Amino acid sequence: MESEAELELRQMIFDRLARRVEEKGALTREELTEFEVGAETYRLIDRNKGIWNPAQLAATLSILSKPDSPYEDAEFSDSLYAYAYREGSVQGDNTKLRRAYELNMPIILLRWIKIGTAIRYVPVFPVYVIADDTKRQRFILALDETFRDIPDVLNLKPIERKYAQRLTTQRLHQPEFRGRVLLAYDHRCAICDVGHTQLLDAAHIVADSKENGTADVSNGLSLCKIHHAAYDANLIGISPEYTILVGAKLMHDRREGSMLRHGLQEINGQHLTLPQRRKDWPATERLEERFAEFETAS
Ligand SMILES: [Zn+2]
């Protein structure tokens, strides 16, 4: 396949994949095995290896990052992403990943997530191979094409490092957090039970701008867009006993409106719908910390 046609095909896959992630949060292996784009079906994950090199493509299409992998795939100094050579060899499966580097072909990084027995994959794309670190037998990946122009990716300047860190949070940690939280809550709003994934967010209990505002499921809540915004604005609060409390501002609003009445005022005093597994429940100390903010605000 010509490079241009291959690039076009990748773009078509990415467009479709972006919509599926919106609709689902994370995908199953089956969905990635038979991924429909228009009238065609494409495989986006290898049968058993962590790297997928389709025969008809010049370069790797996807790589898988799994926590128990024997390879040292890691976020590289918390900024760029390092992907170890497969089998520790320069050749073999690595050849096509090197081609992705040479041809500037965007690839998909599949992040493996697990909640209970459910395994899902969060696709992060487009990802670029921006360096072939032969000395340490690894490729350096960037989650944004702007890094292609940085002359020395193995020695980032402080400002570049800061940008890379922000990018890692946005492109890697946030979608993973959303995938895990939505899965834990069975793709429903913990307040109103809305089950339409496109309307759901993973809300942080303690804000991610704070040091303990980590992207763990126990610091997350699956909330619909309106309840997420209301929670973020401290218009509603959730007590450490999982009770939903509606602040005075909303409670005393006498204007008409079914969303205001049913969607907001009537949830006052209701109990949060919690994940099936106890370990995925919101952590009490996080709820306490956040609830104090709500009480101050109202
Ligand atoms: Zn809701």
Commentary on this structure:
The chain is α+β, with helices and mostly antiparallel strands and 298 residues long. The protein has 2 domains: 3-182, no CATH class; 187-297, no CATH class. Helix content is 33%, strand content 22%. The chain has 8 helices and 13 strands. It has helices at residues 3-24, 29-33, 94-103, 158-184, 225-232, 248-251, 258-264, 284-297; strands at 35-37, 40-42, 51-52, 62-65, 74-76, 80-84, 107-115, 118-133, 138-142, 200-204, 220-224, 236-238, 244-246. It has a 7-stranded mixed beta sheet. A hairpin with a 2-residue loop joins β7 and β8 (118-133). The chain starts with a helix and ends with a helix. The relative contact order is 0.10. The mean pLDDT is 91.
Number of structural units classed as domains = 2
The number of helical runs is 8
Q: Helix-strand pattern, N to C?
A: HHEEEEEEHEEEHEEHEEHHH
Q: Indicate the percent of residues in helices.
A: 25-40%
Strand tally is: 13
Question: Separation of termini?
Answer: 61 Å
Sequence stretches where pLDDT stays below 50 over 5 or more residues = none
Rg from alpha-carbon coordinates: 22 Å
Return the average pLDDT rounded to an integer. 91
Ligand list: zinc ion
Largest sheet: 7 strands, mixed
The SS-based structural class is alpha+beta
Write out the strand line-up for the largest beta sheet, numbering strands in chain order: 3-4-7-8-9-6-5
Strand content: 15-25%
Q: What's the short version?
A:
With 298 residues, this protein is α+β, with helices and mostly antiparallel strands. 33% of the residues lie in helices and 22% in strands.
